[in-house]
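#struct-help
A.M.: can someone run this one for me? Single chain, 294 residues.
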Amino acid sequence: MQEAVPGMELKLERLLRFYPRAATMDNFVFSNDNPFELRAAIICSGHCLFAKEHVPLTKIFTDMVSRSSKLPLRCWVQLLMSSEIEDIFSPLDPDTYDHTNKFPLDLCSATLRLLSESKTNLTQGFDSPLLLDFLDALPYFLDEFYDRVLHMFSKFVKDPSLREPSLPQSLRMVAAIIKFLLHRLSFSESDMSLYESLYTAVSWIMRQRFSSQETTPIMTILGDIPVSFAIQEDLDLISYSQHMLRYITTSAYQSLAMMVPSPYPLRDLRSMVHYMTIHWDHTLACSGSLYGVP
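D.P.: on it. Structure tokens below:
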């Protein structure tokens, strides 16, 4: 096994990046004190990595997202597709999932934000030597990233219509995220970040243009939201985030209902009507605040 000489880590990182087989051995011992770029170069060059100290896999990915480390596009893709990172996205089991683990929630929030801000004007070639940080590089390999996220939350999607390969990948991923967030909501209804993430997801749905075949499964997703937490009769017990989520959900449902080629799912329609009947006055107030009307 080989280990980087203190002070030579960045030189080794550049050597491995440009000459992957320069190392005479396949195994490296890695310390937490070594820079992230060196870890990435070792993994991307096909060498095995042995950590001196235990490092949670989620921390590796968090470092990828949060730090200002810059790598070439091809290196970012290789890192995302590596077995070390792949393990992070293993499917979560709804029955055994550790609800104290915040990483999936952070991943949902980051993914929805990236989805809303995704860039379409990509100027770099895949083999460009230009160094980019993870968030700037991500638009170049969104499909691979979305595949990972969709795989992670796939077990929360029970409805076969939401698994249809013919549905856009981004829609299937958002559906899986919504299902996961609703599952979490049953354990922590007071967590306002869940409502905010759900609001972001529904906002994204409202901005899309769907075919009539895609509309029915989307309405199924939206119909799950009002029935996922107790409808409070007392408006003072409902937070602003809850109100805004319910308002945008009913608005999205109303827009999609005009496109549906078949009868509306009765259960979903009943939950929507029940909510709007109980909170009619406050729904109008939410509508005004959403569009800047006093």
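A.M.: thanks! Confidence is low (pLDDT under 50) at residues 287-294.
D.P.: also worth noting: The longest helix spans residues 240-257.
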